[in-house]
Amino acid sequence: MVAQILLISAFCLPSVLLQESPVDLKAIQKSAQALATATKKGDVATLLEGTYPKAVEMMGGKGAAEKAIRSAMDDFGKKGITFTKAECSEPKEIQKVDGKWYTVVPMVLEMQVPNGLATAPSYLLGVSEDGGRVWKFIDGSGLKNAKGREVMLPGIHEKLKLPTYQPPKFTPNP
Predict the structure, then answer these.
(1) Do 96 and 158 form a contact (C-beta atoms < 8 A)?
(2) pTM for this structure?
(3) Minimal CB count within 10 Å: which of 4, 24, 41, 49?
């Protein structure tokens, strides 16, 4: 009897251990929300920590990326633009392509501009290279055209289901 249990365990246990554990979509949303909140607050260190490494590399590395982000935030401030809302929703599905996991995290950004409010529906593309344990993100606005997608996601962008770009909506001040 013990031999039979050991034999069954030898065949069944590996398949149980090799099953993918379920991905916690709420945890992905929480990670994405940390980046959205960092955008709103101007927390460049958190933005860089959560950004997909290839995106940072394409900006010229961490130092150049930090400088570019700070410059953009300074420009927003000089133009009277402030973030009033940065909110992520829970992703709906995980897409597995060529050994990496991807998910679309819907996001809404609201910015107070000198003459009104701009609301920008967008998304963060989450990328995990370790089976869903750690997620890094790419701003969906950089993926709005085929060239941006091909540069950031060479050879696989056409395999991913990505949302269509939606321009910001403007509501004038009363």
Answers:
(1) no
(2) 0.84
(3) 4
Q: What CATH number is attached to the domain comprising 46?
A: 3.10.450.100
Asked if residues 136 and 53 have their Cβ atoms less than 8 Å apart, the reply is yes
Boundaries of domain holding 80: 23-172
| Cβ(127)–Cβ(99) below 8 Å | no
Per-residue confidence (pLDDT) for residue 19, from 0 to 100: 38
Whether residue 127 contacts residue 52, with contact meaning beta carbons closer than 8 Å, is answered with yes
Residues forming a β-bridge with 139: 124
Q: What is the pLDDT of residue 13?
A: 36
Strands 116-128 and 95-97, sheet pairing: unpaired
- Residue 110: name the closest of 173, 29, 163, 40 by CA: 40
- How does the average pLDDT of the chain come out, rounded? 86
Contacts of 40 (CB under 8 A, 6+ apart): 83, 84, 85, 86
d(CA 121, CA 123): 7
Whether 147 is in a domain gets the answer yes
Number of compact structural domains in the chain = 1
In a domain, 15, yes or no: no
Q: Tell me the pLDDT band of 12, cut-offs 50, 70 and 90.
A: very low
